[in-house]
Amino acid sequence: MTDRYVELHAASAFSFLEGASQPESLVERAVDLEMPAMALLDRNGVYGSARFHTSAKLNDIRAHVGAEVSVSSLGQRLKPPSWLPHQHVAEPARLPLLCKSRKGYQNLCQLITQFKMRETTKQEGAANFDDLEQYASGLVCLTGGDEGPLAAALMRGGEEAGREALERLLVIFGSSNVYVELQRHQEREQEWRNQAAIRIARSLKLPVLATNGVRYATPYDREILDLFTAVRNHTELDRAGRLLALNNQRHLRSAVEMTALFHDVHGAVENTVELSSRLQFKLADLGYEFPRYPVPHGETMDSFLQKRVEEGVVRRYSPKRDAALFDRAKKQVEYELRLITKLGFAGYFLIVWDIVQFCKERNILIQGRGSAANSAVCYALEITAVDPVGMDLLFERFLSESRGEWPDIDLDLPSEDNREEAIQHVYQRYGELGAAMTANVISYRGKSAAREVGKALGFDPESLQRLSSLVNHFEWRGPTDTMAHSFQHAGFDLKHPRIAKYLELCMRIQDLPRHLGQHSGGMVICQGQLNCVVPLERASMPGRTVVQWDKEDCSDLGIIKVDLLGLGMMAVLQDCLELIPKHYGDKVDLAQLPEDDDVYRALQRADTVGMFQVESRAQMASLPRNYPTEFYDVVVQVAIIRPGPIVGKMMHPYMRRRQKKEKVTYPHPSLQPVLERTLGVPLFQEQLLRMAMTVANFSGAEAEELRRAVGMRRSWERMKNLEGKLRAGMTANEIDPATQEMIIQNISSFALYGFPESHAASFALIAYASAYFKVKYLAAFTCAILNNQPMGFYMPAVLVKDAQRHGLRVKPIDIQISDWACTVEHEADGSLSLRLGLGYAKGLRQQSGEAIAFSRREHGPFLTVEDLTLRIPSLNRKELTLLARIGALNQLGGIKHRRDALWQVERAGKLEGPLLRQRSELLREISETTPLQQMSTKERLAADYAGTGLTIGRHPMAYRRPELRRQHVLSAEELRSRRDGEFVRTAGCVIARQRPGTAMGFIFLSMEDETGIANVIVTPDLYERQRLVVTRSKFILAEGPLQNQDGVIHVKASRLLPLSDQTLEIRSHDFH
Amino acid sequence: MSNIPQLYACLYAKEFPAQALLRLRPELYNLPCVVMDGEPPFQQVCSLNTKARLLGMDHGMTRVEVDTFPNPLVLSRSVQTEAVTKGILLECAGAFSPLTEDLSKDTACICCIDISGTTNLFGPPEILANTLLERVRSLGILAQVSVSSNFHAAVCLAKGLSLRNSIQVIASGKESEGLASLPLTVLDLTEPQKETFAIWGIHTLGMLAALPEEELIARMGQEGKRLWQLAHGNCAHLFMPVELNFVLEERMELDNPVELLDSLLFVINVMLDQLVLRAKARILALASVTITLSLEGGRSHSRTVRPALPSIDKQLWIKLLHLDLEAHPPHAAILAVILHAEPGSISKVQSGLFSPQLPEPTRLDVTLARISAIVGEGNLGRAVLEDTHAPEGFRIEPFTLPARDSAPIAPSQTQLSMRKLRPPETVLVRLQNSRPTALVYRERRYVVEHAYGPWLAEGDWWNQTLWGFEQWDIVARAQDGSLLCCCIMRDLMHDEWQMAALYD
């Protein structure tokens, strides 16, 4: 019945801190009110419109698109009069604009882009009359509520000024496109303005339009808006005064309410329906065009692509010397190219190819990941490194005819700098308005919510710090692990009303957007017209522009994107490729790494610290069971330790079968070829597709649709249809109902979390390369990984200790030798060792470190501390103390030990002026010897950890070993020789704490001692009892029964004891 | 200058907030007790007794953390009690020498007494220290006492003493040895100094004293020299004895309970004489007078009078006190009177020869006090609007001369005026479809002709003081045809109708 009113002026939380409801909540409320359509007008953008559109489509509501655009020429927006105390700051009035047609939408996007890009930094910006005149066509303009130009003009100069403002808008937009807006929030002053507006409308013969200027879905949400207002104005609720809303009337209202409210204004409510019917534009008709790649004269993009692919096939497959494979590859490529031509995707492949070529020219390692590795075309274009033909991967997972959406290629690049280079290349090639980063909406999460709500409620900084540091980052959220629980642990009394309100608000703003950031690597490209598709704006990083939608929004609206991602391990590999030929004299080619038994032995032993993807505790715990002996085993290994296979209960059957403890069976004989490689257990998304194709005669495209339907939780309808089709197919193939049920079960439980085989293969390649380099070229690998921190699962201290256990000599930071980065050194006996770089001195500025290395290269070694300070004047006292403390100055003349150096730098750090220094003999110290005692071993250890975060000396646990032995505490190595079930005690330094979401609240502690790493399992029960020990202690003694199954060793702790930590500053990697 | 050798005794009481609160409550000695400081709900433990420490409680814990222990006794910090207790300690120390320096900091009470030349009076230092400690103990405070011929050595030593060994005397010339084993924490080092000594491996005063002096100064400057001397026990000190506070207070217990204000004024008259006399002796005047009346039933009644200028005009004071007590009479018979006065300087301002004559300030004070007595306190001054939507969004500020001429406020377009009723009057309203149709106001019945509204306002939802109301602008007519234009208001919290304002 409510088709008598359409809300045409609503803002969501995407008006960043000026709206309090998600677009989805607004749609939900509109559905409740049976509203047939609604318009979303966020501040200076269409940030929320993609989500609004998607949600409206699902709910069968028409979503109108628009924005409230700041216009500086319209003067300042309404403020309380100057005689009333208030804190309103001057802001331009905002003009509500609605899109009638695609032209209107394109104009709106261009208008917003124009004034946003006029700013040189990330700013709100404002349009002027010239901009409006340029882009007015296809747009309908409302006169706005409190934020709008009419209210501002009326208060500034009465009805006369109001009429003038309106006449100006009439000139710009035309008389049929201007509506005089009336809002009634039960405020006295507003009604005065309404009466004036009605008189003006009547005199200018303009239609009036009722809206509610919606800022939130329900009256209750007004509290969130007030909270946001306080946050936005950097004040507290108690001090916000008139900035806050007067009442809670700006919620979505029903037609009945609106009709009653505007009973005295003829046509105001009816006009909303009329205007709504004029707004024909939907986001689905975006008019996004596929990017084109510039090709030489006489070529089409298709022909150009075909040539590049043909060259690539020869380059990739001829060295394999396998004629049959070559033929299969050619056939596959032909098939793929046909489809690409048909779908018109050649431009996209060429754009990605171009980026890859650019990187190759500059010796930047680049590799595609994800489902692109299923494509032989991608392999031929050197976008990916996995041979999909040789590995028999399924192309349909990447691209299918019926899907109606663009393929998605993710590219991994070594480092931030390289990635930036590639991104800037894309900007240059496609122009400022042709390419931009996708946005990343920063939303309120536990910590940020706790901090900002606390500030708004006026909590002092210390309490806030205490609180936000305690908001838990565990993945698993147990029954007691709520925010309320965290609050209690932080020492807050939940019975206190203000604390209770605080907690409530923290919960309510979870996931609401706060501001727009940029996505780390997602780029959208559109041949110079991206600003017609979505507004662009400056990112906070200089030289970057960002679109107003995030990755999912772009994908929902079918906008093509390329992900350029930084992957730390790629940087390590790239460094290895330089270090290995230089120091070992070996030539290595990543594409041609040999299969090596030593490497597989290391993997089988789970001796994998530092290796890509296989180094985590969970990976280590499964490696001895999987016992990889060939490359495909690594592919499985990478894929299997994931939430999907674990939740889908695939991991254990696979491992049992792998260990021959269970027979390999198949749900149906026809599935044997599909599941043979994974011993009858479906692990990969590609297998799911093939299963459907085999048992139910699905086409590749249908199978892919099935996978996506299962993956999307909301599309039950589609899933039902496909399930029916699946069953029908299986029945046609004479598969009995019980087996059918099992297969469907298999598909639905797994598809939610499955991993594409192609992605696993791409990652397995990197994993194998990292394992190969670590086993064969330990010095180079360790050097590279230490130079690319932070990355991976372990802290540098653990990596160094692991390398030392494998026989690598690691040498200390020495200002006479060390560079900024770690380096490989050649020993007299021909072996290689690793020299820690000055970069590992925590607190030394890079500029100072590099000055040291430069001065040494240019002018030879430093003689004394004084010489050092004179040659490197930028070194400050703190840095000198730091270097002395970690022993980096021990090789200077006249220095016997670290304390000696400390004594001398303290003097050298306070040099006399140049005049006095000329008479330096007068300033000479009386005694030659230092009065300070040499550091004890313990003190050296503490200094090492405090100054560098690691030690190259003995492991801290080694010093305690005799004492621990007396207490019958076993080392990590000794645990390996103990029987399953035996009661043991072990102790170590905690290097990682984990509470995986799949482990029902169990916590895993990785503890290191001088012999290796031991794993301890903490039950939820024990955690509750010994929370502080588990989360805070650096050294722990654990006792309990040993679990020794298939060479995988855990201690199931029944008791934990903290060991005193000698004030060592050891960092662990927690809660990932 | 005399030749008497210098000698100092240092008295050191730690966990002073807890000690001060527990001093007169021996029944609580055996309970774990913590003292919380700060505003609720953010209090933290600032002090605790040994029993609590043994249970695992510590400084900086929050209320909820403390509550996890079995039956802790939680007290709130009382600065007044600490000040009183400190006063008692200083007084106790002052009995041994008039030269006492107060060095109290944070949660410790420290005072150093110059006891040079007191041997004949109190015996050798050991005896004196013992006597002092016993007297302090009898006051209910546990403390340590050290004696040294160097002021700082005595302070350091006292800080380093344990409860078990609560007295130590260093012989003159043996300071360095006596201090050697003490940790550096007794020195009040800055953070950078702490850090430097820690990485140098210097942990005790002995180790610090062993460093070569000049080279230390080359590294740490004059501050290094001072620390070095402190460690040696030969750092000089300029003694700054505390001056006992000049307190203008008179107290009188009444023989019989007094109920009549007039008879009280006789007593006040006598007491004011004394106060004025004492103040005059120091060429001071009385800036304010607080009268505290102990009443029957254990309660007390306290009022403060503060005229614009300090005065020694006894008659003025009596008048002001009289007016104030008349406006705020005590509700029971009076048992005792305490008059406490704050001293202020006598202000005699010479007016310019040709400047216009102003009213005498003291007379204006009396006038304002008279008005205040009639209209109630806080209702005298000028109204200032506040930045809030709340209905009573103003406060009263005392009159002040504006710093500069405020800009004239431009008259708004509409010249409608209204009279706000304060406090609002009750009105009976009849509603139909949630709109007012008739009302009864001041016993007359009106029929509503026009109703504009409701105007809604609500706020402070995050506080317990949340408010909300709806207003209607009404044109109503009585049976006799008289017109009423008014604003009625419904308090949404209590669902009450009130007449908020009348439009003229």
Structure in words:
The complex is a heterodimer of chains A (1072) and B (504). Chain A is of the alpha/beta class and 1072 residues long. Helix content of chain A is 45%, strand content 13%. In chain A, the strands form four sheets. A seven-stranded mixed beta sheet of chain A has the order 1-2-3-4-5-6-7, sandwiched between helices. A seven-stranded mixed beta sheet of chain A has the order 8-9-14-11-10-13-12. A five-stranded mixed barrel of chain A has the order 18-19-20-22-21. Chain A is globular. The two termini of chain A are 52 Å apart. Chain B is an alpha+beta fold and 504 residues long. Chain B folds into three domains: 8-232, Alpha-Beta Plaits (2-Layer Sandwich), CATH 3.30.70; 254-344, DNA polymerase, Y-family, little finger domain (Dna Ligase, domain 1); 418-503, no CATH class. Chain B contains 14 helices and 21 strands. In chain B, strand 20 (483-491) and strand 21 form a beta hairpin. In chain B, helix 1 (16-22) crosses helix 4 (79-94), helix 12 (261-281) runs antiparallel to helix 13 (314-327) and helix 13 (314-327) packs parallel to helix 14. The longest helix of chain B is centred in the middle third of the chain and has 21 residues, at 261-281. Chain B is elongated and about 105 Å long. The model of chain B has no long low-confidence stretch (mean pLDDT 83). The interface between A and B is large, with 55 and 45 residues.
Helix content of chain A: 40-55%
CATH topology of the largest domain in chain B: Alpha-Beta Plaits
Q: Which CATH class of the largest domain in chain B is shown? A: Alpha Beta
Biggest sheet strand line-up of chain A: 1-2-3-4-5-6-7
Biggest interface pair, counts:
A-B, 55 and 45 residues
Strand content of chain A: 5-15%
Rg on CA atoms of chain A, Å: 33 Å
Report the β-strand fraction of chain B as a percent range.
25-35%
Largest sheet of chain A: 7 strands, mixed
Tell me the count of domains of chain B.
Answer: 3
Averaging pLDDT over every residue of chain A, what do you get? 87
CATH homologous superfamily designation of the largest domain in chain B: Reverse transcriptase/Diguanylate cyclase domain
CATH architecture of the largest domain in chain B: 2-Layer Sandwich
Low-pLDDT stretches of chain B: none
Molecular shape of chain B: elongated
Low-confidence sequence ranges of chain A: none
- Coarse structural class of chain B: alpha+beta
Give me the Rg of chain B, rounded. Answer: 34 Å
Total number of helices of chain A: 46
Q: Which term fits the overall shape of chain A?
A: globular
- Estimate the mean pLDDT confidence of chain B: 83
